[in-house]
Amino acid sequence: MKIQQEQISDYNQRELKSHTESFDFLANRLTNNGHNVNDIVSNLADFQVAIPSWALGAGGTRFGRFGFYGEPSNLEEKIDDIGVLHSLTQTAGAVSLHIPWDIPSDYNTIKEKADALNIKFDAVNSNTFQDQKNAAGTYKYGSLSNTSKAVRDQAIQHNLDVIKIGDKLGSKALTVWLADGSCFPGQNNFQTAFQNTQNSLIDIYKGLPEDWSMLVEYKPYEPNFYSTVIQDWGASLMLANGCGDKAYTLVDLGHHLPNSNIEQIVSILQLKGKLGGFHFNDSKYGDDDLTVGSIKPYALFLIFNELVYGMQNNPQNPDLAWMIDASHNVKDPLEDLIQSLEAIQEAYAKAMLIDQKALKVAQLDNDVVKCQEILQGAYRTDVRPLIEKARLITGGAIHPINAYRNLGVRDQLIKERGKHTVATGL
To answer: Residue 39, class by beta-carbon neighbours within 10 Å (0-12 exposed, 13-18 middle, 19+ buried)?
Structure first.
């Protein structure tokens, strides 16, 4: 399915009067307070977030998976679905593939389809947390950290193969997340597992093209619950530093222990020039992979405050790879992703309203109350008209969820694909 621009234009025409009134009111107020509204809208219009290929179908739990009608059954259909998202939001201009779940059968066809929908290929993700068909070794007891050199070599080669696949598509980064760890005390020697992982990552790093980067992800637990080899940002940073200048830490919002100060982690990594990527989701208890901004919207705003500050003040840090990493168990996956994109844009817009100069003065004066007032003043601002304007000028829908439903997108997908298709991946 492909949404035509005339359909979006017709929908926007019906919403235009209400949007214009809201935008003009907000723009006047922000301008009077010294904000450059055009710059904010332009930044929102330029901001792109990658959609992971595995998030376009229903997710699941270890107890079961409940499918969603009209799921994409191959990579071509997944690209089509991202095209729908991008048409409506103009924010989903990239796809992140997970290998081997989504190895293209015809690279030229996939590239042509993505180009036609104005979609780029973001970081490619390797998979050594599942045993692959006909593999010689098992990852049951680890991959890059395994005590067996043969298994480590197998995992290294998989990552090198993923790089080759990504290179054919125009990707520029490899994301490495490991399930490696232990379930019981004494099961692993921590130092040996860490050193094996470092040596394995160095071998993978040597296979990176000159203009590529490696993103090292971390997670404190799951699927191993006593220890994980790359348990936190410090371990990730050490491993990245051990590889070289093209290796960076990747932060996933769900990969932290409860109440971790993620905004502080983000800030320090940017200061050191080592924040390479960011995975958006939300959680109540652990790595819940819920809709972005659905549980802790203020925490997301505080994180974006640091991200915006870093983008403005830390030229030593590279441009970030942004991606949503979520699992959709009860919602229409496309509607869930639209809501996540909206929440990301909203947090970004609010962070751009923070008067960083005034905040700096208040910080130097130790005026704690003023600091809070500056942050919460930006957070309490309804910035949705700014996001709507960014969509409008780039050809997106003023209200993507409403447009999605009014256009009957899911019904059309079911008509085209049927009720019993299953998406590859989670």
So the answer is: exposed
Which parts of the chain have pLDDT scores under 70? 425-426
Pairing of strands 94-96, 321-324: unpaired
Tokens of 339: 């809501």
223 prior amide bond cis, ω within 30 = yes
Q: What is the pLDDT of residue 1?
A: 83
For residue 252, which phi and psi values (nearest 5 degrees)? -110, 130
pTM surpassing 0.90? yes
Residue in 297, 272, 294 with CA at minimum distance from that of residue 351? 297
What is the DSSP annotation of 27-46? HHHHHHTT--HHHHHHHHHH
Q: Cα–Cα distance between 49 and 86 in angstroms, integer?
A: 10
Joined tokens for residue 421: 């298709």
One-letter-per-residue 3-state SS of 322-360:
EEECCCCCCCCHHHHHHHHHHHHHHHHHHHHCCCHHHHH
- How much is the pLDDT for 420? 86
Predicted local confidence at residue 57, as pLDDT: 87
Per residue in 204-262, pLDDT (tens digit) is 999 999 999 999 999 999 999 999 999 999 999 999 999 999 999 999 999 999 999 99
Strand 213-217 to 247-252 pairing: parallel
pLDDT at position 389 is: 98
Beta strand pairing call for 213-217 and 173-176: parallel
∠ CA 278-279-284 to the nearest 5 degrees? 125
Torsion angle, CA of 126/128/129/130, rounded to 10 degrees?
Answer: 100
**Residues ≥6 apart with Cβ < 8 Å to 252:** 217, 218, 219, 278, 279, 281, 287, 325
181 in Cβ contact with 142 (< 8 Å): yes
Three-class SS of residue 319?
Answer: coil
**What whole-number distance in Å separates Cα of residue 220 and Cα of residue 8?**
43
247-252/275-280 β-pairing? parallel
Which pLDDT score is estimated for 425? 67
